[in-house]
Amino acid sequence: MICRMGLTAALVLVWTALAHGQEGKAAPQTAPYVHVVIFHLKKDAPKGTAEALIADAYELLAKIPSVRGIQAGLPAEKATPTYAKKDYQVGLLVLFDNYEGLETYLNHPLHTQYVEKHLKHVDESKLQVYDFIKPKK
């Protein structure tokens, strides 16, 4: 439970950063559907795989029309004490207007290309996906 609270706190911080238009597409406050993927790479993944996952997220995934904002990166060196996990290699956060936007993204040829290129280096048994929705005020 405490780990989930830590993850939730981290996601709120990322959401705040996105809402203020940092790196990637500007993230409007009106994109309430959040899709988070935590990638764990296989031990034999080639050097540079994490960086390629990140670069391709911006190069490919950000071009999908239903994507309203995107962030991808490595675990932070300085992070929330006690709760922040650093046992993964890449975190990805994608914003949509609604679930239909996520469906469009998942079925889009650029997403398929991204998955086909990178999934062979991802430990699928540890892959974590979180979808949540920002509550209306």
Explain what the structure shows.
This protein has 137 residues and is of the alpha+beta class. The protein is 35% helix and 18% strand. It is built from four helices and four strands. The protein has helices at 2-19, 49-59, 99-107, 109-118; strands at residues 33-39, 69-73, 90-96, 128-133. The chain has a four-stranded antiparallel beta sheet with strand order 2-3-1-4, with helices on both faces. The longest helix is centred in the first third of the chain and has 18 residues, at 2-19. The two termini are 26 Å apart.
Task: Please summarize what this structure is.
By secondary structure, this protein is α+β, with helices and mostly antiparallel strands.
Strand order of the largest sheet: 2-3-1-4
Q: Distance between termini?
A: 26 Å
Taken in chain order, the helices and strands follow as: HEHEEHHE
User: Based on CA inertia axes, which overall geometry fits?
Assistant: globular
Number of helical stretches of at least 4 residues? 4
Rg, Cα atoms, Å: 14 Å
Strand percentage lies at 15-25%
Structural class: alpha+beta
Largest sheet entry? 4 strands, antiparallel
Approximate helicity band? 25-40%
The number of strands is 4
Could you report the average pLDDT, rounded to the nearest whole number?
Answer: 84
Low-pLDDT segments: 1-27
Which key terms come to mind for this protein?
four-stranded antiparallel β-sheet; 137 residues; alpha+beta; disordered N terminus; single chain; 4 helices
Would you spell out the secondary-structure blueprint of this structure?
Blueprint: H1 2-19, E1 33-39, H2 49-59, E2 69-73, E3 90-96, H3 99-107, H4 109-118, E4 128-133
Antiparallel strand pairs: 1-3, 1-4, 2-3
